[in-house]
Amino acid sequence: MGLKTVEGLTDFLRQCGGYAVIDGGLATELERHGADLNDPLWSAKCVISSPHLIRRVHLDYLEAGANIIISASYQATLQGFEAKGISKEEGEALLKRSVEIACEARNIYNDRAAKSSWDDLDNESNLKHKPILVAASVGSYGAYLADGSEYSGIYGDAIMVKTLKDFHRRRVQVLANSGADLIAFETTPNKMEAQAYAELLEEEVINIPAWFSFSSKDGTNVVSGDSVVECASIAESCKQVVGIGINCTPPRYIQGLIQSIRKATTGVAEEDFVSYVDKWCDAGASLVGGCCRTTPNTIRAISKLLSSKQVSQGLANIYVD
Ligand SMILES: [Zn+2]
């Protein structure tokens, strides 16, 4: 499944029935399966120590209804690997590996779906054939620093757009050639980093699309205090960007944030969480998934809710036609 263009995403969404489900939290699930994430590399550590656990969690999310799975590269940076004594070449191989693990999970899912459709057509637990995308995760500069600036967006006066571009450049190049369908820039904490991503995608002529996802603590601004509308405009101005969204943000703020982003453009994004999903879709979201502390159960509930929405929307479309 490729996704080379904005039209590619539109086709993908159509095949998904109008709304696509993104996976949920990775770190919590890895820990639940016994991984030890007490390390500055966080879930990236598992790419080295326990790739089978990452594959297991990706598969859990696919089985729970996800259409998009995000690689374990959020915290994986060449600079972070280097600090661990890992060479540039090995580091680049690990970045690629994080995406390959997600692709392997997709292959396993597809094989099982093909097999189960022959085994028993009426079985509820049957895996459905569905479109699946693999997104390569890119965390912010602050996520690499692991000093809290990931959640404040305050990098200090010495850090400029150029610093951030140089920091992200090689990782983005490697991930763009790893077999991923798109790049997911997640938990973007400020306008400057959005600008750096946008310039980098264009300068390096990155040939897969990207989405930018921002985090907010107040429902109006991203965590640094920059306006979410300005951040969304920067993303919108970059031709490789196919989605703009919100993650790592209290669910109660998301509807308003989607409406704000929608003004500049279109939006992405446990029972409590799921109760908001309908409103987010009504506000204009067509990609919905989970972030920290969400589980395959969250994603299962979202997937169920969105399928029922697809049915009623499908009927509405037929009626309109
Ligand atoms: Zn989060």
TrEMBL record:
Recorded GO MF terms: methyltransferase activity; zinc ion binding
Single biological process term from Gene Ontology: methylation
UniProt keywords, alphabetically: Metal-binding, Methyltransferase, Transferase, Zinc
Cofactor(s) listed in the protein's UniProt record: Zn(2+)
Cross-referenced Gene3D superfamilies: Homocysteine-binding-like domain (3.20.20.330)
PANTHER family: HOMOCYSTEINE S-METHYLTRANSFERASE 2-LIKE (PTHR46015:SF8), ZGC:172121 (PTHR46015)
Protein name in UniProt: Homocysteine S-methyltransferase 2 isoform X1
Species of provenance: Nicotiana tabacum (Common tobacco)
